[in-house]
Amino acid sequence: MAILKVGKKITARKDQHADTIAATPVYGVIKYVINGAKTNDGALVSNNYVNDQDAVSLAEGMIFDLKHAPYGIDEKTRWALHLKHSFSPDEQVTPELAHQIGVELAEAITDGDYKYVIATHVDRHHIHNHIVICMAGQLPPHKHMRLHKTAIQQWRSISDELCKEYGLSVLEPSKTQPEQYAKTFEELYAELKGVGKKQALRAMIDEAVITSQSYDEFVDALQERGISVAVRGNNLVYTNLATGMKVRSSKLGYAYTPPAIMSRIQGQILGWVSINETLIKSQSTNTITFYLPKSKRQLLMSVPREQLIQSNKTYHIFFAEDAQIVLKDRRGRYVKTINKQDLYQYFGDKTLTAIQQIAHSNRGNRQHVVMGRSEAHNRYLRYQAMRIDQLNDRIDQLMSVRQTMQQGISIDTRITQLNNDIKTLQREMRAGLTALIDAEHNNDYETRAQVQAQLEQLEQDLTSTQQQLQELQRFTQREQEQQRTRKHPRR
Q: b or e along 59-81 (b: 16 or more beta carbons within 10 Å of the residue's beta carbon)?
């Protein structure tokens, strides 16, 4: 059984200049797919236009066709098509057979009119092909390929036929239920609880995971299925774009949380740390290099993009349990190698106390009235001020309850959401405070001002969220006390 999907569009970024072959997007993707460590030292790489298996030569051939296309190359040009052809881990398929099927699929798609490169990767828990097809034709006038909306379905049908021809299984189309089909009480009850929809979501996530090699590819794969993904604290939030229904990963099970998803994509158990974007030193197509926190910007570590999840201004970095992290100095020279546990010392939780100090609420710090005509008058004014404060508190509570009711959720659910939002803000503040400390060590005033502005906004958001939580908790407590009073009235 093989699954075929279209990868991210291969186009030029705004900050990318194609002055050299190595700077073009088509070179970057070809260099990645023909990586010898993934393709048995290049034995599982094929193309239909040159004898060389060098990324520069392969890219040059495609760039020639693109430059001679009717409109040449501009910022909006789609350079190549990237297909990912994945075989089930349960399928008894050899790398050589998977590669042969991929070559025949590429030939059927291009029909000799377009240049292609195919590479079979064997470094993951499932064998998969990467097929890169130039969007400009090989022969004059080198017209661009036009993709019909049913093209991917047609290519999947070709893939299924090839699998059948070589004795492999295929995905059977789902059978639609007849209109007169009567659902059981258990099925209706499951739908009312959302279990049926959650199970369908789990199935889509499982399919996206098996065909992805990085978090970005995972997001794109779900986007194609009408599902968006966002990081919220220790959770991923999956949103059905058609209905707007949101489901936290904690509601789907541990296998759908950020560390579990990344572990499944990487094929091994992972741990993670968080780092603020201000500690980025440089970026390339495949990696991001960070200053190591608490090293006074003297130590650097480079992280492959497939090990990263970005959430606003925070990057979550995932490492294997037995990872060996290479640290370099500012000039890029090797310093030492550390393990994941040693890495944690640079990402300590000592900032948590600072967060709690920053996130204090001013509620309760009442200004005493001292402008009365006498001490008795002052006591009266203070009492009235206290009553007004209590009334304002009650109004805030009722407003929070009203907003919750308008959202169509229970107060208990809203309290859980606010607790999760607080965890998210605290995580971002930890990363921000780490960056702030690092900037202070290096007398980097520009970065310090930038991070402080971020922290001030986070502080406001955290204080507001905590206040909403307190208001709902007070309302809940008040309601419980009133219920107890009604059950056990005073005699």
A: bbbbbebbeebeeebeeebbbbb
Q: With contact defined as beta carbons under 8 Å apart, do 44 and 95 qualify?
A: yes
- pLDDT tens-digit profile of 89-116? 777 889 999 999 999 999 999 988 999 9
CA distance 18 to 16: 7
* Model-wide pTM > 0.90: no
